[in-house]
Amino acid sequence: MAIRILHTADLHLGASLKNYGELARGRRQDFLKTFDRIVNLAIKREVDCLLVAGDLFDSAQVDAEIVGRVQDGFERLSGRGIRIVLIPGTHDNVVSAESVYNRHSFAGAHILKDPVVNEPLPLEIRGATVYFYGFAYRSDRSREALESLRRRDGGGIHVGLLHGSLKGSPEWDMRKKDIPFTTPELAALGLDYIALGHYHNVGCLEEQGRIIACYPGSPEGKKFGENGERHVLIVEVGEGSAAVEKVPVQSRIVNEFTVDASLFPEPGALEGELARLASPDLIARIRLVGTVEDPLDTSNLSGRLQGRYSWLELLDETDLYDSSHVKRMEREDSIRGLFIRKVHDRFEKAETEAEQELCRDALKLVMGRFVRGGGN
């Protein structure tokens, strides 16, 4: 026997998303649309169970509208006979009495809120019993929580849910509440599959050629670094086996690029390259690098590209210091020439790289004002 699971985590519904500026409101709607898309996918793929491995919500207290959206989605799933099992995460924890999971009911959903696994949750699926193990971490009561996931005696399929951190991962520094673990530690628990949450990029952990556990990543990019397609996992779980399929679900793509502006010296050429990279559903951060002859007007560029991207952040990391144009202007008998000479002199006398970088930045800033203001 095998069961089909849709595994997701880290949806962060209700996040402020202020890092997206004027697009923040639209991004909050994107996250809700992606939740709806996940519900629809679960129905379309006829999964037996939806697993949410923590941080369905971005905080413990959530707007009633968002709660209602989730309640409606869960009711649609349970109406189709799809079981829902979820655990709170670090963002939507149950420490407070005001936690969304303590204040609201979610019909059809099994929310594993205990600080350790006393006994797994048994659910009848396809005429057999499937056992689900999960807990809501509490610093004062979860000292043995990871060990409590260890498989209980008996046959059938045993599935875990864990919102935690792989030791040695470069994603972030771990805290105790991040529940650190190693792949061998998870394998030793004896479960057929462990649905992980907490890290926002997809990845599976294997031991002796067998998939032990997977992170689905966040289904929508919450910030830069969560780039490219975002996924949920469709997992076929049997006794001692798990086969995983990544399915993209995002509403918009978040991505980062680096463009060497020195390769586009002709008027309009850089704008043309940025337009080529554009897409109406793309949220982009573009670093402009290279030695340029004239200061870039990134505000003007952003305005001219309005509408080609969902949202565009241009970072000007170009350098004027060694440009032939600046070297020619240095010889001028003008305020501009005098300024350049003083900057170059200060640069040569600088004792640290930080002082040199300050000189480069000052030159770029003032030269931009000369060019746009017509000074000489």
Distance between the termini: 80 Å
Q: So what's the CATH class of the largest domain?
A: Alpha Beta
Main structural class: alpha/beta
Number of helical segments? Answer: 9
SSE arrangement, N to C:
EHEHEHEEEEEEHEEEEEEHEHEHHH
**Could you say what the CATH topology of the largest domain is called?**
Purple Acid Phosphatase, chain A, domain 2
CATH superfamily of the largest domain: Metallo-dependent phosphatases
Output mean pLDDT: 91
- Rg, nearest Å: 26 Å
Regions with pLDDT < 50 over 5+ consecutive residues?
Answer: none
Strand order of the largest sheet: 4-3-2-1-13-14
The number of strands is: 17
Strand content: 25-35%
Helix content: 25-40%
Largest sheet: 6 strands, mixed
For the record, the count of structural domains works out to 2
